[in-house]
Write a structure and sequence with these properties.
Strands 1, 2, 3, 4, 5, 16, 17 and 18 form an eight-stranded mixed β-sheet that branches. It is globular and about 65 Å long. It is α/β, with parallel strands linked by helices. The protein has ten helices and 18 strands. The relative contact order is 0.17. Catalyzes the hydrolytic cleavage of a subset of L-isoaspartyl (L-beta-aspartyl) dipeptides. Used to degrade proteins damaged by L-isoaspartyl residues formation. One of its GO terms (molecular function) is beta-aspartyl-peptidase activity.
Length: 382
């Protein structure tokens, strides 16, 4: 199947001006200037004229709770699963699923099944094996075999540090697990990334530094999230990035979390760039369908809301419109950099050979007109 997208103002993420894109099945087969003749024509080619609208890569979200999360306030506080309709309308075309606090009533098998359900609907989905607690829950009996033998499992996560809900892992345990994930990733041609949930305890990111200092594991093998959770954690995250690590900011939030000191994700990106953190070390994730719990000073649960997948696209717009970050640079933190960290070379860029995952933006305002995933329009007007 051939599809020609004409007159796209292309950000790949670098700005390429007005272009024609040819899609062959699921991938981009050609990109030519709009001044040139289209690469193909004829009755067998589907044609869509985008009339100069901006086209950017589909977003890559490294943390989504496909099957819900929560439960910190009892069974009545479990959050719902992600629906396919919400996912298709979000602008996120590549999603990585994780368990969270609850790895007892939710399992890796549930997670994998939901990943395949969303993939059947047209999206690209992956998973992390494990959860907050250690020893990690797995599908096949070990972290290494999950990553090596199950195509969707690309790393380990969300392992909790500096959080009262985690297992308080030692530096040795973190290094050992990272080594297992890294080696299995090498054997399978995957990233073997260790995705880290970071709580608000004053130890912040020190467990990861100690694991790297006391082992041969590079600090970039870890990708800690929620770095905008508190001002102190944010500052420690900037130091961590300057030391060679990566940092991830959470786009889902609530008025209560912001009032409690959370740094808005778009502001966190802007401040990190102003602090001369290398852009490639910054990513965004939605934490979609996770619980965003509130605890009092005694760590007692007092309420929660659920994360939203659409918050990733919203924060990308805030980076551009509220903080003046160039679109091509903002795309990196919402797509390209996560694709690189997760070792997904066909994601996060619009170039020949890449998967045809792309967003068509409206002429006015920060609005999605169309979402294309793997060469097929999955959202937008017919």
């Amino acid at each position: 199947m051939l599809t020609l997208l004409k007159n796209a103002r292309l950000f790949a993420p670098e700005p390429l001006g007005l272009c024609h894109l040819l899609i062959a099945d699921q991938r981009i087969a050609a990109i030519v200037s709009a001044d040139a003749e289209p690469p193909v024509s004829g009755s067998g080619v589907g044609v869509s004229d985008l009339e100069g609208r901006r086209v950017v890569p589909g977003l890559v979200d490294p943390l989504v709770h496909f099957i819900g999360g929560g439960g910190e306030g009892g069974f009545g506080t479990r959050t719902a699963e992600l629906t396919l309709a919400d996912a298709l309308a979000s602008g996120t075309t590549t999603l990585v699923g994780a368990l969270g606090t609850d790895a007892l009533t939710r399992t890796p098998a549930n997670l994998l099944g939901k990943a395949r359900e969303l993939a059947a609907g047209g999206l690209t989905t992956y998973c992390y094996t494990g959860s907050y607690q250690l020893p990690p829950v797995t599908l096949t009996g070990s972290v290494g075999s999950d990553i090596l033998f199950v195509p969707e499992f690309i790393g380990l996560g969300e392992v909790a540090i500096s959080d009262h809900r985690g297992s308080q892992p030692s530096a040795f345990e973190l290094a050992r697990l990272a080594s297992e994930a890294r080696t299995a990733g090498m054997l399978a041609g995957k990233s073997g990334i260790v995705f880290i949930h970071t709580g608000d305890a004053p130890t912040h990111l020190e467990p990861l530094r100690e694991a790297a200092r006391t082992s041969a594991i590079p600090v970039a093998q870890f990708l800690p999230t929620h770095i905008n959770r508190t001002p102190a954690l944010f500052e420690d995250g900037l130091r961590f990035a300057r030391e060679g690590g990566r940092i991830d900011f959470t786009t889902s939030t609530t008025p209560e979390l912001l009032a409690g000191g959370e740094v808005p994700a778009s502001e966190a990106v802007a401040r990190a760039l102003e602090a001369r953190v290398a852009p490639s070390r910054i990513t965004l994730s939605s934490d979609a369908n996770a619980s965003l719990p509130q605890f009092d000073e005694a760590r007692r649960f007092i309420g929660l809301r659920a994360g939203r997948l659409g918050s990733l696209f919203e924060v990308l717009g805030q980076c551009v419109n509220d903080h003046g970050i160039a679109l091509e640079r903002a795309i990196g933190v919402a797509s390209t950099h996560a694709a690189d960290a997760l070792k997904l070379p066909r994601k996060g860029r619009l170039q020949v050979g890449s998967d045809a995952d792309l967003l068509v933006l409206a002429d006015n305002g920060w609005v999605l007109d169309e979402v294309w995933a793997l060469g097929r329009k999955v959202y937008g007007h017919s």
